[in-house]
Specification:
By secondary structure, this protein is of the alpha+beta class. It has helices at about 20-25, 30-45, 70-95, 100-105, 135-140, 160, 165-175, 200-210, and strands at about 10-20, 50-55, 60-65, 110-125, 130-135, 155, 180-185, 190-200. The longest helix has 25 residues, at about 70-95.
Length: about 220
């Protein structure tokens, strides 16, 4: 529901390909021009949360969902599915195009990070396209560039984490004791705190737990 300023609450989920710039700069154009769009299409079809797409920025998909915040377990499952889809796609290239795979992908040159944030948005219709506006939209974009050195990870902002009322539920899915703290400082916006965990750590833990069926 929108407030008096026309803002409505929104959940942000932004998968972004790490190593993208170096990959584009070094790899053959005939290889990259087909691979990246195909990879992004695969990631889009893995959208079990039924999120909308705000925009696609070359190497990132800006998913968002207004209204009720998705359950933590469903968010964790979405992270796992997106990462599995990414990993399966990269592995498939080894079978279909081993030469380019060995040249550009064999040493995990590409990775995946997922930015998870919560805030408020307003929208504008620009020649038939919906444009998301607001400080939280800018923050979600800026967090794509951060100080985390890992190639595959999930970043959960403090603002998102503050909306999780059941801390035990959060720990069950995102393993609070494994989350590492970080912070970025942005001009005009100040400090943005977050926690993060590598996707390999998280998916290993979820696999070990044998994920139960999740309610919609």
């Amino acid at each position: 529901m929108k407030d008096k300023n026309g803002l409505e609450p929104a959940f942000f989920f932004v998968p972004d390909i790490t190593g993208f710039t170096k990959f584009i700069a070094n790899a053959d154009i005939n290889f990259t021009k087909n691979l990246i769009p195909a990879l992004l299409r695969k990631l889009i079809t893995s959208n079990i949360l039924k999120m909308k797409i705000g925009e696609i920025e070359g190497d990132a998909i800006f998913f968002y969902k207004t209204g009720r915040l998705p359950p933590v377990g469903k968010v964790a499952e979405q992270c796992k599915i997106i990462y599995q889809t990414f990993s399966d796609f990269i592995s498939s290239v080894e079978q279909t195009d081993p030469e380019n795979y060995n040249l550009y992908l064999a040493d995990r040159q590409l990775g995946l990070k997922i930015i998870i944030h919560y805030g408020h948005i307003s929208t504008a219709n620009i020649k038939g396209r919906i444009k998301l506006l607001g400080t939280d939209v800018i923050i979600a974009h800026k967090l794509l560039k951060n100080a985390i050195e890992d190639c595959n990870y999930i970043l959960l902002t403090d603002k998102y984490l503050s909306k999780i009322k059941d801390s035990q539920n959060l720990d069950q899915w995102f393993h609070w004791e494994k989350l590492r703290a970080g912070m970025e400082v942005y001009e005009y916006m100040g400090e943005v705190g977050y926690r993060y965990i590598t996707l390999d750590e998280m998916t290993f833990m979820l696999d070990a737990k044998s994920l139960p069926a999740l309610k919609s």
